[in-house]
Every structure is written in C-alpha cells, then in structure tokens.
Amino acid sequence: MEMTRHPEGVTVAVPVLPEGLSSEDVILEQRELVEDLVISQGDGSRVFWYYTPMAMAFTAHLDCELCVYDNMDELSLFRGASRELLDFESELFGRADVVFTGGMSLYEAKRQRHHNVHSFPSSIDFDHFSKARVIDADPDDQASIAHPRLGFFGVIDERMDIDLVREVASLRPAWQLVMIGPVVKIDPAGLPRLANIHWLGSKSYKQLPQYLAGWDVGFMPFALNEATRFISPTKTPEFLAAGVPVVSTPITDVVRPYGDKRFVEIAKSPADVIEKAELLMQRPREPWLQRVDRHLAAGSWDKTWAAMHMLMFESLDTGLSTTATTRTYFPTPAE
Q1: Model-level pTM?
Q2: For a Cys staple, 267 with which of 160, 273, 306, 320, CB 3.0–4.6 Å?
Q3: What single-letter DSSP state applies at residue 146?
Q4: Cα separation of 296 and 241, whole Å?
C-alpha cells in the first residue's frame, strides 16, 4: 500500500498490485491491503465513506461505526460500467447509515431507495477560482490564441457533445474554442480538428484560474444522454466564481437553479449557443457578478461540510469523538 501523508491531515493509500492477476485475485489482494490498513489505525471510531459501490467487493466484511454513501454520479450509466455495480450499490444502500447525492436529479432518483438521503450540490473553492478575476497574463500555450474565446475544462469523454463543438466552431470561425482536459473512453482521432478549436490537454487544478482569466465565455457542451442524465457539474459554480459567464446545454442540475436564476444561459442548438454567447459578450458583467457572488456565498464547502457532519452525527446511535475518528474514503477509480 503506497501511503502519502498530506499536511492537511489526509493520508492517501493506493494499492499497488502486480500485473497479470486475475480479477478474483485483484479483489483478494485489495481486501488484504485494506484489512492491514484498518488494523494499523487502531481501535478508534471508524467511518467508511464510499464514492463508489465497487469498493464493497473488498470492504463489505469490515466493521465501522458509520457508513456514508456519497453518490456523486449515476456510475451505472457510464460507458464501460461493470455489470456488478448495481448489485454492489443495492448492498451499499443496505449498509449505509446516510446517503448524500451530488445534485437534485440524483436525489430524486435515489430518495426511494434509502430512508436517509440528502442532496448536496457541488460547491467551490471560491478563493481559488476567484483569482481568475484579477489575473491579466495568459499561460504560454493560450497567449497566442485570439479573442473571443469560449472555454471548457474537464474530462473529455462520452458526456461531451462533440458535434455541437464542431458546429459552433464552424459557424463562427473567428471565435476560438479552448478545450482543456484529458480525453477518456473516446477515440481522440474523433475530435474535430478545426483551426479555431484548441485541444490543450490536461492542466493542474492550480493552473485553472490562469486559463479561465483569459476566457470571454465558459462553454459547457454536455451531450444529452444516459451518462449526463443525473450529473451536477462542479464546473458550473467554478466558472461563476472565476467571473466567467457561461453557456450550457440543458442539463437538469444546471437549469435548476443556475438557468432559472439567469446565472447561466441555456442553449439547445449551435444557433442557440452562438446567440447566447453573443449576448453574454455584450452584457455588463458587474450587476450579474454581484448576484452570482450572493448565491455562491450561501453554498460554500464549509457550510456543506457542516451540514453533512451534523447529519452524520444524527445517524449514529451514540456520539463519535471528533478527535479520535478514522475516516476511510473509497473513491471512484477516476479519483
């Protein structure tokens, strides 16, 4: 188990396995490594926090005082999802004391499956992303790109409407589309290679405000398919914190509340995207930004965590000591 200790108090444990193991042996090896890890933490109160039901394969036999299922996406609808995932999720719902969902559409889909489900839409690290409002220098690989710029950051996979990106770029050849993020589960050869589409690859979290600072409009070209049916994109409030106006396709958790409150413009077609982007480039930002900041202030990560923490304590028969608690998180493979 490869252990990395961070100064904030988080230890990340990554199982490192030899190549060539069968799927059964992979589970057995992870099971042994996690058992050793849990034993090494002593007898303090133990919280298991699951981001993926697949971790049940090697942790279901372990005891904990509190089990949290943080359901961030409908993983079963993603390309390549395991057939076992739904079975493990049913098992996890049976074990969990409290369930959090990453947005209202997921909450509505899961609230009948557990007695203690709560929606927590994504917040943002406001101080980090708001740096974009005062940065006036472009990164080297963006400096030569002309304006106006429409920008996207995030994983580029089956959730992106590639045809929409291509058509917007074709209809407005003077506009520059800046696309940041890794290409995952789709063939990079299928990405449109027009002169005004710039695929800049992955950037670190730390670098993102530098790129956002140079964008005229944020572009969220999500496809409307099974993989996006329940998503609640974290990048929505991150764009807003950066002071970048946004055009998005009609993803439910973007329409509610961001579209309804006119924080984000919603577009269904290439012509709609162009119309809304032109509107945003002409609109004064300051009145809009004042309303955005009031909204974002009500949903900080600190407030989200405080509400989650209270629900966790309420889910326990007896109180946990806040100074002697081991929290074990089981992230999705992408994390």
Answers
A1: 0.77
A2: 273
A3: P
A4: 8
